[in-house]
């Protein structure tokens, strides 16, 4: 999935801008409670969405679940991840559907390796989007800002053939147009 994402970025921006975008992408892994990051790369034939957030924003904790109630929260979150387009609504005229989702969250998958992962769990995923009309992909609505009160700010970056756009969204302003 990351290979597809980078290929898409290269095709959109050309090689001269890849380094700066790669540096921006590395900021996806900053761990700040109350904040989440979303990047959307759009090409003529496909789109890829990358998302990152501390798990605390969704669950109220970011370590392995300790009891049945916490296990239920994790199960519910994993279920909701089956269709991230319920969290991030894209331009209806683009007619996008979520394709393959690549989840990178050691706490959710039970594959924590380091002590840092055990203390500061993140939710990260990439999703391929199948859009019938990707050229109509011109807006998004970040519904997750109203669904999850732990997320106060969503930093959004969009890259497409026409340029780059960035905006910080919050519960009172969940829409972005480019």
Q: How would you describe this structure to a colleague?
A:
- Keywords: Signal.
- This is DUF2796 domain-containing protein.
- Strand 7 and strand 8 form a beta hairpin.
- The protein has a six-stranded mixed beta sheet with strand order 4-5-2-1-7-8.
- It has helices at 2-13, 15-26, 56-59, 68-80, 106-109, 115-119, 144-147; strands at residues 35-42, 47-54, 88-90, 96-104, 122-131, 139-142, 153-160, 163-169, 175-177.
- The two termini are 25 Å apart.
- The longest helix is centred in the middle third of the chain and has 13 residues, at 68-80.
- The protein has one domain.
- It is an alpha+beta fold.
- Helices cover 30% and strands 34% of the residues.
- The model is unreliable at 14-28 (pLDDT under 50).
End-to-end Cα distance: 25 Å
Give the overall pLDDT as a whole number: 85
How does the overall form come out from the CA principal axes?
A: globular
Low-confidence stretches: 14-28
Number of domains: 1
Share in β-strands: 25-35%
Radius of gyration: 16 Å
Protein name: DUF2796 domain-containing protein
Pfam families: ZrgA
InterPro entries: ZrgA-like (IPR021253)
Keywords: Signal
């Amino acid at each position: 999935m990351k290979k597809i994402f980078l290929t898409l970025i290269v095709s959109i921006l050309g090689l001269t801008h890849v380094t700066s975008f790669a540096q921006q992408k590395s900021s996806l892994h900053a761990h700040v409670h109350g904040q989440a990051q979303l990047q959307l790369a759009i090409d003529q034939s496909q789109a890829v969405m990358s998302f990152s957030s501390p798990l605390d924003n969704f669950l109220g904790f970011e370590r392995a679940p300790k009891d049945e109630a916490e296990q239920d929260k994790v199960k519910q979150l994993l279920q909701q991840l089956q269709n991230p387009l319920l969290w991030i609504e894209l331009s209806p005229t683009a007619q996008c559907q979520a394709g393959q989702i690549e989840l990178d969250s050691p706490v959710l998958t039970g594959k924590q390796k380091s002590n840092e992962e055990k203390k500061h769990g993140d939710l990260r995923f990439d999703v391929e989007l199948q859009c019938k009309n990707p050229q109509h992909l011109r807006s998004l609505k970040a519904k997750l800002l109203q669904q999850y009160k732990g997320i106060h700010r969503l930093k959004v970056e969009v890259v497409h053939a026409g340029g780059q756009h960035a905006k910080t969204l919050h519960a009172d302003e969940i829409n972005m147009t480019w």
